[in-house]
Amino acid sequence: MMKRYLMYLLALLLALLFLGCTGVRDVDTTVPDVTTAAESTTLSDSTSASSSETTAGVLVSKSNEELIDELIQQIKSALSE
Amino acid sequence: MKKLLLLGAFLTCLFLTQSLDVRADTISYPFDSIRIIAAYRFDIQISTAPNPTSVLYDHAEIDDILTIYVGTLEYMNDGEIVGGSDSILIITTAEDENVVAFLVNSFSTDLTTYEQHSYASWITINPEVGVIKDFTVDLFELTVYHDLTLETYQLIDNAASEFDMMAGSYFEETDLDILISAFVEVL
After folding, report:
1. Cβ neighbours of residue B92 under 8 Å, at least 6 residues apart?
2. Is residue B186 part of a domain?
3. How many domains does chain A have?
């Protein structure tokens, strides 16, 4: 009886370990990795001339202020007659 | 009986594991670029002196004309839209000084007579996380009210003062496709 109980417990722990690992992996993929973003940019870049520069540099996310400034410029420019 | 208990414990753990995943996905939607898909602008004339608590107070006086810009945005990640659409409000003076640039905080409409967007100073964006509420800044909220029957707009400042759109000043671009990268390369 005790042996069967331990078997159930072991199966439960293995199942939780598997699900836990899967869960952690899913959460990690939602957070962009700067290195991964740099690699994907290099791959999707059709201009081969810039690829060496891209691999040499590091992509850094822009700040809130930098993005807002760019949005302001682009929206004003698009609406200028 | 023990089998039932074990089965119950297993299902509970499974449910909790899945719930954590959903919650993590909800609070984090990173993006690698922002697409501007539409924008409009209109002018308002300051008809009453701005309240000292208004964000307009130090930037406009009676009879001054301010330009209101509104852009509709989409956050993109690997070519896919993430986090739904967003909107930005920009207010500039006649001298092209930017008074505010706030992202949308809330939206309401009755679908027939009006719709309004509220833009708040505490809404910020971080490409690695998504939209973040930063309550450490000065807290201001402005509203753009759109009368759907009269096709007019109104700006309501944080002091609840209302400023009507000047007739004939409305201009829009509904088919924009401007992509802004959220990352910059550092050598």
Report:
1. A76, B66, B67, B69, B98, B99
2. no
3. 2
